[in-house]
Write a structure and sequence with these properties.
Number of strands: 2
Largest sheet: 2 strands, antiparallel
Helix content: 40-55%
Shape: elongated
Strand content: 5-15%
Order of helices and strands: HHHEE
Distance between the termini: 63 Å
């Protein structure tokens, strides 16, 4: 069945193309007959060859300008593979069960996977953490994007 489907599509495309060409030819033939009946066949052929010549001159010119525009747009756009960014973590992310069991704050060097708390100069050595009021730095966890508290 896979081989019949492309053949059927090709046959339909050829049939549609044939009907389009037939329509163009019939309109052209009707115009030739009409202009000839009025003794203005030379006017018809002058207009016909002028339109055909203009199409052959300006068609490739348009394609050249269009192709240059597409080429410039593709070169100046961002690379398409930049959407695939590999995210690596220095340590494994805890599962949601481990987070529920361990309520302690997890601190890493660069934000890590838990809230990072700054050390305040006014606190003594025993109490080294302080809860900030609003999140400021995003990071990824198993549950999605979260914010580190800095």
């Amino acid at each position: 069945m896979e081989k019949t489907r492309p053949r059927a599509v090709l046959a339909i495309a050829i049939a549609i193309g044939f009907f389009i060409l037939l329509t163009i030819f019939l309109r052209l033939y009707a115009n030739v007959l009409w202009f000839d009946s009025l003794n203005f066949a030379s006017v018809f052929w002058t207009v016909f060859w002028t339109k055909l010549g203009a199409g052959f001159i300006f068609g490739p010119l348009f394609l050249l300008l269009f192709g240059a525009n597409v080429y410039w747009a593709m070169r100046s756009s961002a690379p398409t593979n930049s959407a695939f960014i590999e995210i690596t973590f220095k340590e494994e992310l805890p599962s949601s069960d481990e987070e529920a069991e361990d309520d302690e704050t997890h601190q890493t060097e660069e934000g890590g996977n838990g809230p990072v708390l700054e050390r305040s100069e006014g606190l003594d050595e025993e109490n080294t953490t302080q809860e900030p009021s609003e999140p400021s730095q995003p990071f990824l966890t198993d549950e999605g994007l979260k914010y580190a508290l800095i």
